[in-house]
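Database export, one record per block. Field names are fixed; values are copied verbatim from the stored entry.
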Amino acid sequence: MFQKTVSAAILTLVLLSLLPATGCQTYGPNLGLLAYPIPVSPFFQDELEDQFWMEERYNKVPILGPITAGGPPAALDPPSQDEIMRALEEAHPLEGGLPFLFETQRNNVRMTVEPIADYVDPPRVYPLIGPAQLHHAHYKCTIYYSETDRTGWPIPYTTVNEDAQEVIYIDHNHLHMVGNVDTGPASNY
């Protein structure tokens, strides 16, 4: 009996001495409860990724080089299908989203993009940029789709609008530098 107690005590000491080697021990400052990872819902993670994508891709105004003489200034690329669908979701979000209760879907999406205007403002000085010209490019985007509304309670039914359409106006503005643009010291690397 005594030998079992001694061997159990030695085993407990060995296990306690191995505890820091498991990786569960944190070294450095003790952060208390903040040291443990907190799970984030995929909904909020997707929302943060979408905000980053919009900021990085569509909410910045590019600064291009000077407009070359001898030809009209060409606008940047027309809006992409991703940009048009994001603008549509922002302007007219889908309602519902509760499966088996109420749900709306957009199917068979087709788009047309028409340039409305393309013009350049006279040069002016922009803070932190310097002398530049603002180039405006306006587009009319028509989205054709079939909209399906499914209601599951109190009486299940489905309505389909085959000829649904929305018009979204998207502006692509960017700056062109004016004059002799100094890009800094030339490098010979």
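Remark 1: The beta strands are 63-64, 96-98, 102-120, 124-126, 130-151, 157-171, 174-177.
Remark 2: Residues 95-181 form one domain.
End of record.
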